[in-house]
Every structure is written in C-alpha cells, then in structure tokens.
Amino acid sequence: MNRVCLVGRLTTKPELRYTNSNLPFSRFSIAVNRTFSNSQGQREADFINIVVWRKQAENVCNFLDKGSLVSVEGRIQTGSYDGQDGNRRYTFEVVADSVQFLESRAKTQNREQNTMSDNVSPYDYQNDNSFTNNISVENDPFADFGDNVTITDDFLD
Predict the structure, then answer these.
(1) Which of 17, 108, 111, 151 is the most exposed place for a label (fewest CB within 10 A)?
(2) With 50 as the cut, is the pLDDT of residue 54 above it?
(3) How large is the average pLDDT for residues 63-82?
(4) Sign of the torsion formed by the C-alpha atoms of 123, 58, 54 and 71
(5) What is the C-alpha separation between 56 and 19, in angstroms, rounded?
(6) Range in 9-23, 36-50, 93-107, 116-130 the model is least confident about
(7) 126-141 residue pLDDT tens
(8) Bridge partners, 155 (sequence order)
(9) Distance separating alpha carbons of residues 60 and 98, to the nearest angstrom
(10) How far apart are CA 99 and CA 76, in angstroms?
C-alpha cells in the first residue's frame, strides 16, 4: 500500500499551471517539522514536494499562500532523469488526493503580518499563536524547579 499523510506549512505561494491538454495542476512544497530536536536543540523540518491536480489545484492556488498550514493525503511517486552532467537524478513527490486547509484565511493573513513585522520564519509559528523558540514560564514544567535538570541515558543499560 502506498499512502502518505502529512501536515505542514507551504514554503511558497502555489502557482496554477496547465498541461498541453488544458488540465490544471500545481506543484508546491510543504515544510514538515520533525518530532525531535538535533544536537543543538533545534527542530528541523523536511521539505516535501507535492503535486495536486484539477479542481483541488485551483482551490489550493486560490486560497492558500506561503506559510498556510495544510494536511496532505496522497501517494508517493518516484522517478528519475539524466542530468546535464550525465548523472542520473532521482525524484520523489507526493501526488495529493486531498489537501485540507487547517487554518482560516484570516488567521493566515494575521500570521503573515506578525512574521513580517517580527522577522520570524513562518515555520516557527504554532497554531496556538506562540513561537516554538519562545517557551513561556506558564507552559514550562521546570520553571520553578530551581537548579538545572540533568537527564542521562544510564537507565537504558
């Protein structure tokens, strides 16, 4: 079975294009946050290429913008081609069956205005209007603990 379900933010505004037979489609990518942090304590993201067809492509282009939060369901499609240097290149994209809009247009525009004025990446912005790199004292379970917390992997042995 070849099924994929992703939640992420658009990295650019999608553009509507047409095939030679006048079939609408759009290609865009989404940034999907990883569930863990790297060795520097930063969250990384994977950038996944998406292609969507027909009416869904028109809707994506009409209602979504850079930074919009979406859910994509579809299948993985792979391919290959020979580059100008003669080396084989491999491609991978998700062919979307469904693209769900996960936030209102007003919320998207509000987030865009906030990120432009604060110079913050839209990928750091969470649904609860907080930033992933700013942890408030109210949400920090160790805020009143006092000393540093040390966690070791010794218990795994």
Answers:
(1) 151
(2) yes
(3) 95
(4) positive
(5) 15
(6) 116-130
(7) 444 434 444 444 555 5
(8) none
(9) 10
(10) 15
Spatial distance between the Cα atoms of 28 and 51, rounded to a whole number of angstroms:
7
Ranges of each domain in the chain: 4-156
* Nearest-angstrom CA–CA distance, 69 and 10: 7
User: Cα dihedral sign for 26, 66, 100, 109?
Assistant: negative
* Burial class (CB within 10 angstroms; exposed 0-12, middle 13-18, buried 19+) of 65: middle
CATH architecture, domain defined by 4-156? Beta Barrel (2.40)
Q: Between β-strands 43-53 and 88-101, what pairing exists: parallel, antiparallel or unpaired?
A: parallel
**pLDDT tens digits, one per residue of 12-29:** 999 999 999 999 999 999
**Sign of the dihedral through C-alpha 103, 12, 17, 8:** negative
* Nearest Cα to Cα of residue 128 among 99, 100, 103, 153: 103
